[in-house]
Design a protein that fits this description.
With 276 residues, the protein is α+β, with helices and mostly antiparallel strands. The chain has a single domain, classed as Ribosomal Protein L22, Chain A. 29% of the residues lie in helices and 19% in strands. The strands form 3 sheets. A 4-stranded mixed beta sheet has the order 2-3-1-9. It has a 3-stranded antiparallel beta sheet with strand order 4-8-7. The longest helix is centred in the N-terminal third of the chain and has 22 residues. It starts with 9 loop residues before the first strand and ends in a 20-residue tail after the last helix.
């Protein structure tokens, strides 16, 4: 398959929870600051601040806009609250972005057309036994059987890979976890990434998606990363990928605005209880 000339790459920016800095608050819109200041846990606030600032910076570079002027709409399709998937208005063209974080790692993918990025940590604390409610909720029966055939020590990594694939596809379909993930069937962890079956309402959306494991993502050990995105041409060729240093981008932006109050607080007052 050949990528048509002029097809822009999907850029994936990588950062760390520790990249959050007070100066990044200047990039966020008032609803985003309100959400940030409601988080109770400092780590959650840091992830949100770094992720949302990186999203604005990455999109701003592609759109030729200052990051604070990127017109993001984060309205939830279900309730209208400001915690939905960030979207750009149609007038800016087919640009899309996807944000994911797990543990201390943060990723932002930016490209043309539908896309979804997901990072999942290998969590040894998960109950991945035959009687686990988690296995039944997350996996289809055929996926659960493949997972449970593995020795216990191998299950967290395999589950993370399958889960990252599922959520990447659901994000690219713009439904996220509003659909039961067990209804979307992907290949087992030891096989190349692909969708085996989708519920009827998602089959058309899934048909033009390419699903990839990002084996070389700079997350370090203990993470699985998957990207789902629209094909770049009529023969189904995937667009090229480019890995970018999000930590450096955040550091430069933070130095530009050093005098803002610490993230997770407003005017020095304690943040209110966390809202997910």
């Amino acid at each position: 398959m050949t990528v048509p000339a002029g097809v822009p790459p999907v850029e994936i920016w990588w950062a760390h929870e520790g990249d959050a800095a007070p100066g990044l608050r200047a990039l966020l819109a008032p609803p985003e600051l309100d959400r940030l200041d409601r988080y109770r846990l400092p780590a959650t606030a840091r992830r949100y601040l770094a992720g949302r600032a990186l999203l604005r910076l990455a999109l701003g570079r592609r759109l030729g806009l200052p990051p604070e002027q990127v017109p993001l709409d984060s309205s939830c399709a279900g309730c209208g609250g400001p915690h939905g998937r960030p979207r750009l208005p149609a007038r800016l063209g087919p640009w899309n972005a996807s944000v994911s974080h797990a543990g201390v790692r943060i990723g932002v993918a930016v490209g043309r057309g539908r896309l979804g990025l997901d990072v999942a940590a290998h969590d040894a604390a998960l109950d991945l036994t035959p009687d686990s409610g988690l296995v039944d909720r997350a996996l289809a029966p055929i996926e659960a059987r493949a997972l449970l055939r593995l020795p216990g020590r191998a299950r967290p990594g395999a589950f993370a890979r399958v889960w990252a694939r599922k959520e990447a596809v659901l994000k690219a379909c713009d439904v996220g976890l509003s659909r039961p993930p067990s209804r979307l069937i992907v290949t087992p962890a030891d096989e190349p990434a692909d969708v085996r079956a989708a519920p009827p309402e998602l089959r058309f959306a899934v048909a033009n998606l390419t699903l990839r494991d990002l084996e070389r993502a700079p997350t370090g050990p203990g993470y699985a990363v998957a990207l789902a995105h629209e094909s770049a041409g009529p023969d189904g060729a995937p667009p090229p990928l480019r890995t970018r240093d999000g930590s450096a981008l955040l550091a430069t932006a933070a130095r530009t605005n050093p005098a803002n109050p610490p993230h997770g607080t407003r005017g020095g007052t304690q943040a209110s209880p966390e809202r997910r």
